[in-house]
Amino acid sequence: MTAELVVWLVVAAAIVVVGLWPVLARQRSARTEPEWTAAAARSRIAELEDRLDAADLPAAARAKAERSLLLAGAALAEGGRKAPARAARRAEEGLSTLRSIGPD
């Protein structure tokens, strides 16, 4: 093999790698959270609202859950592809706060 042929092969390999890099990088990214729809996020927000209607909640837990409810609504209203996941995550935070103080 001549040096010229080696250089051509290295350049060709570099072009292939650079061309395929976006495709290979996209396939490697792992999805870490479930795909949420706006309807599922609204359902989770409604569940949080129902739990907040209970009169016997401690003030600190109520305040934290209401903050989560506000943030969930704001995230859903913001729009975008990831908005339902953010809204559902915030609603889940509020629900877990209410679950930690006792049963339904």
Give structural notes.
It is a single chain. This protein has 104 residues and is mainly α. The protein has two domains: 1-32; 38-100. Helices cover 76% and strands 0% of the residues. It is built from four helices and no strands. It has helices at residues 3-28, 38-52, 59-78, 83-100. Helix 2 runs antiparallel to helix 3, helix 2 (38-52) packs parallel to helix 4 (83-100) and helix 3 runs antiparallel to helix 4 (83-100). The longest helix is centred in the N-terminal third of the chain and has 26 residues, at 3-28. 18% of the residues are buried. The model has no long low-confidence stretch (mean pLDDT 86).
Provide the fold topology.
Blueprint: H1 3-28, H2 38-52, H3 59-78, H4 83-100
Helix pairs in contact: 2-3, 2-4, 3-4
Q: Main traits of this protein?
A:
single chain; rod-shaped; 104 residues; 2 domains; 4 helices; mainly alpha
Give a summary of the structure in a few sentences:
The protein has helices at residues 3-28, 38-52, 59-78, 83-100. It is mainly α.
